[in-house]
Amino acid sequence: MAEEVDVVVVGSCMTDLVSQTPRLPKAGETIHGHKFFIGFGGKGANQCVQAARLGAKTAMVCKVGKDFFGSNYIQNFKDNAVCTAFVTQTAEAMTGAASIIVNDAGENAIVIVAGANMLLGEEELEQARSALAKAKVLLCQLEISSHISLQALRIARQSNVKTIFNPAPAIPDLHTDFYRESDIFCCNESEAELLTGTRVASVNDAGHAGLELLKRGCAAVIVTLGPQGCVVLQASNPNPKHIPTTKVTPVDTTGAGDSFMGALAFYMAHYPSMPLEEMSRRANLVAAVSVQSIGTQTSYPFKKDLAAELF
Ligand code: ATP
Description:
By secondary structure, the protein is of the alpha/beta class. It contains ten helices and 14 strands. The longest helix has 15 residues, at 256-270. K(+) binds at residues 252, 254, 290, 293, 295, 299. One of its GO terms (biological process) is nicotinamide nucleotide metabolic process.
């Protein structure tokens, strides 16, 4: 029996297999790289780990393979104090993996095999139902079957649990209920662009796209804008509000969006009456720390690394 948790994430786990090479190989070609490393990734797990590192009691609902990568990932959750009561292992597919090649110019080629992530089903969601219904915040993305994400949002909503939905990776024909079941619908520029069919290249554009998304039924919309922070809109105050962030020298922005999402979930769970603009301002500052070092989860700050005024 899992103890009560603040933030439940229903989502993905991926093992990143990263090779650094002078250039990207051509079809049929074998080349030598200069470095290889394995990292923990997957949008769901990244967001969960960031929320946990800020001090939220978190639980992950996900599926990994009955393989070395899956067992290793479960240990990673434990190392980050994430509850693993709802992490299941299957022999039917391998743990999700992203094979990544990065060349010296920083360009990459990536193959993602979602594997076990796509086998997370209603049965596993049912097992997590009571923990989910007692949580403060549910966080979902689209790296698992979309009907499972939607079902999780519905269960949370029925239990008055706040829902944060991150439509990533974006799909053009997103079911309209995703908007209606989202207390916060949070996407980046390219996702906003794909979902609205309008160009999003500025703060102004993000405000327009945000308004269009808001009209589809969410209680609030956040569009993240990389070094420009984010734009926040609420059904109760649909005027787009730009929340800038501090200027930093980015080293590696991979996973910044997930750091932002995890931080947002933490603030929603711990400071439910804080204005959304302030939660977003603080999430900007957490994500800004993550872009200043290499890696995805390896770059995510812990509470102890951050200024006291963020808590
Ligand atoms: P990624 O795909 O790299 O994980 P994303 O495209 O989903 O990220 P972004 O909008 O690029 O999301 O970034 C999310 C948040 O991270 C931003 O709202 C901002 O707070 C922070 N951030 C990203 N890049 C920078 C940067 N260069 N400087 C400061 N903050 C940044």
